[in-house]
Known about the structure:
Blueprint: H1 2-65, H2 81-86, H3 90-121, H4 127-135, H5 142-152, H6 158-165, H7 180-205, H8 209-217, H9 222-233, H10 235-251, H11 254-260, H12 272-282, H13 286-317
Helix pairs in contact: 1-13, 3-4, 3-7, 3-10, 5-11, 7-10, 8-9, 10-13, 12-13
Amino acid sequence: xxxxxxxxxxPVRAGAQTPRRRVRSGRGAAGKSRAERLAPYVLVAxxxxxxxxxxxxxxxxxxxxxxxxxxxxxxxAVGFDNYATLFDDPLFLASMRNxxxxxxxxxxxxxxxxxxxxxxxxxxxxxxxxRGVYFFPAVLSPVIIGAIFNxxxxxxxxxxxxxxxxxxxxxxxxxxxxxxxxxxVAVHIWATFGMALVVFLAGFATLDASLIDAARVxxxxxxxxxxxxxxxxxxxxxxxxxxTTMIGMLTSMFGLLYVMTGGGPEGSTYLPEYYIWFQQGxxxxxxxxxxxxxxxFGVMLVVGLAQIAVLRRTGRED
Length: 318
């Protein structure tokens, strides 16, 4: 009897234990997948909180403040009066024209560090030295750089002396309204391209070197390698450098402008950030300065999105 009952009890016990084990394992898998889904949000939450508190909230306050008045109407709602005042101000219009000039010069500001990074990546003679030399200006203060180039670009300075030695007349680099803005932008590019160079070198670290070697074996020239191999391979890096360089040109030139030209001559080197400082610090019109800041933010947003769209389309076509 014992032998007959044994096979009956054994499947019952096995059948009772098996489903329990499966249920437990199923709950564990479900719990693990839920934790994995929540992990990215938990990791991003501190950064999102900091951005929201210290970036987005002050931005919203600034936009709201731009619809209030200055002086006797301080704190009173004035609608779009500040924006109407902005677009009737010749200095602000000059600053917006200079923004358009910066957009046109942006390809130069991106191409210079891109080409130099290409040469460093291809290990031209002295590439280790060049890497440090190119980055060195990025650690200097804009005030120091402005003071140095004030001496170099003075009407009787070394640059004009060198031009005179080759038979070219002196140029009033910082006193001619048609030249001054180009001079300041050139100094800014020289002072800041080292950071973009580092970003490009980081992008090159992710590039498949075998593609470049194959192109060289096939007899492709350097311009063809850059156009058909390097540019498509670094499309994401180029997008990042374009946007950050544009933002830097619109928001990080105050020191150079203040030291080199003071917004002159004749307001030809005004940029929105210098106009904002002038209205806030010199004219005591913070609401008008907030309106100018809002316009500058809108310009940067539109230009940045347009640049990304163009670069993405170009990348797909290549």
